[in-house]
Amino acid sequence: xxxxxxxxxxxxxxxxxxxxxxxxxxxxxxxxxxxxxxxxxxxxxxxxxxxxxxxxxxxxxxxxxxxxxxxxxxxxxxxxxxxxxxxxxxxxxxxxxxxxxxxxxxxxxxxxxxxxxxxxxxxxxxxxxxxxxxxxxxxxxxxxxxxxxxxxxxxxxxxxxxxxxxxxxxxxxxxxxxxxxxxxxxxxxxxxxxxxxxxxxxxxxxxxxxxxxxxxxxxxxxxxxxxxxxxxxxxxxxxxxxxxxxxxxxxxxxxxxxxxxxxxxxxxxxxxxxxxxxxxxxxxxxxxxxxxxxxxxxxxxxxxxxxxxxxxxxxxxxxxxxxxxxxxxxxxxxxxxxxxxxxxxxxxxxxxxxxxxxxxxxxxxxxxxxxxxxxxxxxxxxxxxxxxxxxxxxxxxx
Amino acid sequence: xxxxxxxxxxxxxxxxxxxxxxxxxxxxxxxxxxxxxxxxxxxxxxxxxxxxxxxxxxxxxxxxxxxxxxxxxxxxxxx
Lengths: 398, 79
What we know:
By secondary structure, chain A is α/β, with parallel strands linked by helices. Chain A has helices at residues 10-24, 62-65, 105-122, 149-161, 179-193, 217-225, 242-246, 254-261, 265-298, 301-349, 351-356, and strands spanning 28-39, 45-50, 55-60, 77-87, 92-102, 139-144, 166-171, 198-203, 230-234, 249-251, 361-364, 367-368, 380-385, 388-393. A five-stranded mixed beta barrel of chain A has the order 1-2-3-5-4. Chain A has a five-stranded parallel β-sheet with strand order 7-6-8-9-10, with helices on both faces. Chain B has one domain. Chain B contains two helices and two strands; from the N terminus they run ααββ. In chain B, a hairpin with a 5-residue loop joins β1 and β2. Classes of the chains: A alpha/beta, B alpha+beta.
């Protein structure tokens, strides 16, 4: 009889149950409260999910724990997604959790949407209000936690790309109670401090709750009021925070924010090199065009005209000189001739000339005797010849 | 510490000026004397910029508010 009974081994039965259960519940969403929470040294999480009527063992493997956006703890109400699996050695079934989130996340989401709509209506997200990010910021303000990963990420990007910038940090709490207030205050503080070209406000990734400060009105209004351009750098690439909407520029991560606001130094130096090269080329072109112009001017007709003119003038001066010489000679000659003729006339009038020709002058008592009647017998007189004077006595008068 | 404006020594200002210079030189309508002066200025600016970019160590300073509301800058704890 007993052989007719279809006896199976426990292992076989369990295998069948396992197969049946696991194919029936490959993916379920379940809501419950966490109890008996254990974080095993292996890294896996073991706990129980329960409600008023039942309980369900739960396991979360280490690889998925890494993706947790909040620390689960006893008493926490959660919604979990996973598949039902059977663990044969213990003969129990459990939920193998892929994803888990606290209940109440819905309320946060709701608050987020409400604030987003309110601020949008007020114009806080208006693209016209957004300030341009300076092209070459030299002093960068960072508002984040001094101990957070965000600062390290930003630091390493800046060190690599552009270490000559100066970084001013205001360390704040980036999650938990009072974080929004601290972030808002820090933004105002940076503005009062002044001299900062651009601000990075942010933190590394986390759960919606972790990032919540960046969804608060206090932070949004401080960003909006900032005179310094602000780059938001909050957490994950996919999720947007309210801060992202208000900020002048949204960076998906803190590292990306640093990448966005500083140019790579090597690239910059190359650009400068290229500018110098272009400048050199431009001035060379200009210089050689000037040289050509000078050269063509030197051989141009107009440029040589003055030299020709000078030559012409000097020729003319020579000519003038010559004709002047000629004229002068004429005049001199004429004058000479006149002088000769006058002298001749003058000579003709000179009594000595008459004397030479054989005439003589008779003087009596020093006076010229111009008539024979003036001399009488016995008078003494002088006769002047051209070569001398002699004394005479009149023998016969008239 | 006084607020820093976009002063003449800023990298942004220098690079903009350098670009302006290159542009005017490329247009070629600058008198030669001016062009030579511009060129010299350009070379000087490019050297200054390169000098500025030379620093190899990132400086992070922590800003905190004193009791009276004044600011203090301190070296951040380096890793």
